[in-house]
Amino acid sequence: MRLTAFGALLALGALACGGEKKADQTQTQTSAAQPAATQPAGPVVEVKMTGNGSTQATFVPTAITIAPGTTVRFVNVSGGPHNIAFYGDSIPAGAAAALNAGMANRQDNLSGPFLTTPNENYDVSFAGAPTGVYKGYCLPHVALGMKVTITVK
Question: For 2-152, CATH number?
Answer without folding.
Answer: 2.60.40.420
